[in-house]
Every structure is written in structure tokens, then in C-alpha cells.
Input
Amino acid sequence: MVLENVAEDMRAALGKLLDIAAAEGIDLDTPLPPAPIVLDAVKLRRAGTVLATSIAELGDSVAPAAKRDELVRSATVLGLKATRIASYLSDAHPRDAWDADAVPNLLLVELLIRQVRNGLALTPTGEPAMRTLEDLNRIIEPLLARLDRPRALLGRLVERAGAPSPFCLAVLSGRRAARCFARADRTLKSARC
Output
């Protein structure tokens, strides 16, 4: 008898919910989205794409041509890496995947943001791209704030010329950069199966 009363109460509550949904225009037969949308992930993907496109469109306003190519290359990689990091914001990933992939990519994004900002500062028509870069940076900054230990480790690797090549190129020069590239190349060759 008690279970019958509970079942009847549940049917009544479900009926009321169905009535409310119908009154609100909610179609309960519409499938739910596969995963929640993370606004920062969407904004980060969009900012990365818009940044790379807007810098590529600057054309001859960036002089000399070598600086233009370097700026476009940095912005393109930045856009791609921002998209990769955005995937970590919108999907559930194990902690070791975050540490092994997202953290190094965040450190690279930090470096690329500096490079692109410096390149845009020398470009008279770069203001729209600079605003987009700052939008991207606002999303990335809280993630970067948590990377003190990995950043310190990277700094020690750069000092020893043992960091990944983009960091060597940005910080080291001459023979130390060449040693860093050679060490990174040996590491890659030894890792191949």
C-alpha cells in the first residue's frame, strides 16, 4: 500500500513537470547536447583563429618581410596551440594528459603571446589584431598563473641548453642555441621506435 502511494505521488509529480515543460515550450523529446559548452573554450578557439587571420591580413604593413613572415608564423602556431588548449577546457582529460600536453603547450603559448605582442607593437595597423591578442590573453592568463613550477623547470632547462627548441630560439643565441637544438634533435631521434 505504501509503495502504491509513492508511485502515485511520483506519477502526479511527473505529470506536473510535463505540464510545466509544455507550458514553457520545452520539447522533452529533443536530444540533449553531447557535452556542455564551455564558453572559455569557444572564445579561445575563436580568438586563436581570428588572431592568425587578422595578422595574416596585415600584409605589407609589417616591414620588413622577414618580420612579417615571423609574425604570421608565430600567430599561426599561437592560434593552433590555443585551439589545442581549448580542447582541454571543454573535455574531461586525465591529470597526466594535462601535465604532459596542455602544460607544455601553455608555456609555448605564453612565449608566442610575447613574440606576437612585440611584433604587433611595431606594426602601425596592428591595433585590431592586438585587441584580439589581449582577448586571447585574458582567457589564458588564469591558466598560466598556475604554472609557476613548470615555468621554473623550463627556465632551468633553458639555462642548461636542454629546453625544447622554441624556448632555446627565443632565449639563447649562438653556440648555446645550437647545442640546445642538437640536444633536442638527439632526444627526438632516441625516442623514435
User: Anything to note?
Assistant: Residues 95-121 form the longest helix (27 residues). The radius of gyration is 25 Å. The chain is about 75% helix and 0% strand. Residues 187-193 have pLDDT under 50 and may be disordered.
